[in-house]
């Protein structure tokens, strides 16, 4: 297998396997030199781009749809505020735990099957959580978030392997679909709940989007068949790498802030005098800012030698939104929401940074798994502590101050992660 290393100002440094001319075969069983197809990259077709986009669109509604009707769900199942805090922390906690399994599933079964199973798991969880009672809500959310966790780790690897010379564009499509799905979940769910008179129907309908993603992925995801004339480079652990830890902490802190916002923003706005439907719409607007930032920032970031300044600016803009919610939440709730939404634009950058700080798909997979598994464990503390402080103090001040402190630390680690180096 010949490795061609391309260095171009418009592309990331990547090493991509290129088979020699004539290596493709329609009958792999008849050629003993051909590798098992499950160990190769997926074929980078337009249909695969659509599959990635629809899969990404499923990775946020499970969280934002629940946040927009959280108080209704809590009251309906007779649960406490502590239960609600645990529920909002569950996605990030589950993302961290289940994300560890993603590289193993990839190596054993290949990306096509691993992502397909992740989407099936997500869809099953979305259906389960609306059956009955607090345990079903927790169990279904746990299952759905396990599927999301696998998708979070595996889809960036699909993009890195299958679209190496369109990395910025396809990452932008992925991030735009991710944000769009989250915004749709927040905006539509309260209206569906009001129209149907049931939060169960409003949450359960998102399983249909999961079914669509499973079907499209099963058609569009196909492994290439390539000749292998030497073994692949062994995977290495990045646990002793300082840059890998910097990226991981940066990922965890930005995810902590994002999941606090996605889990609790409607409740903060409601106490500031915003009605529930409008609060859900504001969360949708906040999440929707990820569409333009997701489409525009990754292509821009891959052309920049350093992403540090861009990361710090977006982080500080988001911090201004948190300050507004802390100091004068009822004065301009939409403005604070918009600023917070800009701050969440850091997420497309951290996903891009994972690719930029690595030399090849093997390191991308390792860094993605490390950053997302350990990072989401860091993030899980945020929504839980945010709700817990609200219950202990009777207000949002201590909770929002906590988020401001995390935002300041995020800016420091984001600046370091954005510097032009590789693990």
From TrEMBL:
Residues 1-29 are annotated as: Disordered. Keywords: Membrane, Transmembrane, Transmembrane helix. GO terms for molecular function: transmembrane transporter activity. CDD domains: MFS_NIMT_CynX_like (cd17339). It comes from the Bacteria. The keyword Transmembrane helix applies. The chain crosses the membrane at residues 41-62, 82-102, 114-131, 137-155, 167-189, 201-222, 243-265, 277-297, 309-328, 334-356, 368-389, 395-417. PANTHER family: 2-NITROIMIDAZOLE TRANSPORTER, PTHR23523. This is CP family cyanate transporter-like MFS transporter. It comes from Actinokineospora cianjurensis.
């Amino acid at each position: 297998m010949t490795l061609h290393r391309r260095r171009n100002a418009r592309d990331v440094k990547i090493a991509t396997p290129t088979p020699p001319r004539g290596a493709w075969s329609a009958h792999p069983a008849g050629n003993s030199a051909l590798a098992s197809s499950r160990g190769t990259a997926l074929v980078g077709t337009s249909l695969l781009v659509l599959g990635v986009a629809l899969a990404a669109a499923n990775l946020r509604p499970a969280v934002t749809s629940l946040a927009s009707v959280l108080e209704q769900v809590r009251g309906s199942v007779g649960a406490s505020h502590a239960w609600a805090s645990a529920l909002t922390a569950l996605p990030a906690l589950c993302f961290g735990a289940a994300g560890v399994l993603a590289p193993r599933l990839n190596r054993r079964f290949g990306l096509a099957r691993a992502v397909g199973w992740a989407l099936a798991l997500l869809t099953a969880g979305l259906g389960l959580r609306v059956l009955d009672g607090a345990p079903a809500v927790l169990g279904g959310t746990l299952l759905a978030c396990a599927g999301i966790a696998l998708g979070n780790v595996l889809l960036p690897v699909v993009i890195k392997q299958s679209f190496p010379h369109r990395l910025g564009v396809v990452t932008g499509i992925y991030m735009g679909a991710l944000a769009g799905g989250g915004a749709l979940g927040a905006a539509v769910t309260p209206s569906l709940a009001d129209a149907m008179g049931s939060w169960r129907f409003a949450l359960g309908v998102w399983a249909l989007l999961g079914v669509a993603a499973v079907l499209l992925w099963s058609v569009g995801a196909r492994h290439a068949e390539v000749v292998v004339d030497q073994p692949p480079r062994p995977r290495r652990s990045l646990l002793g790498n300082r840059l890998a830890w910097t990226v991981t902490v940066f990922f965890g802190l930005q995810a902590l802030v994002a999941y606090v916002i996605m889990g609790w923003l409607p409740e903060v706005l409601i106490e500031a005098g915003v009605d529930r439907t409008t609060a859900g719409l504001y969360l949708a607007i906040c999440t929707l800012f990820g569409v333009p930032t997701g489409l525009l920032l990754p292509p821009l970031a891959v052309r920049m030698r350093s992403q540090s300044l861009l990361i710090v600016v977006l982080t500080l803009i988001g911090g201004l939104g948190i300050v507004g919610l802390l100091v004068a939440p009822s004065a301009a709730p939409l403005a604070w929401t918009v600023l917070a939404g800009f701050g969440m634009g850091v997420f497309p950058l951290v996903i891009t940074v994972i690719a930029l700080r690595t030399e090849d798909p093997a390191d991308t997979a390792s860094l993605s798994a490390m950053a997302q598994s350990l990072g989401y464990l860091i993030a899980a503390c945020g929504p839980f502590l945010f709700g817990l402080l609200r219950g202990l103090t009777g207000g949002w001040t201590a909770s929002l101050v906590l988020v401001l402190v995390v935002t300041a630390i995020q800016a420091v680690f984001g600046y370091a992660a954005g510097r032009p180096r590789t693990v």
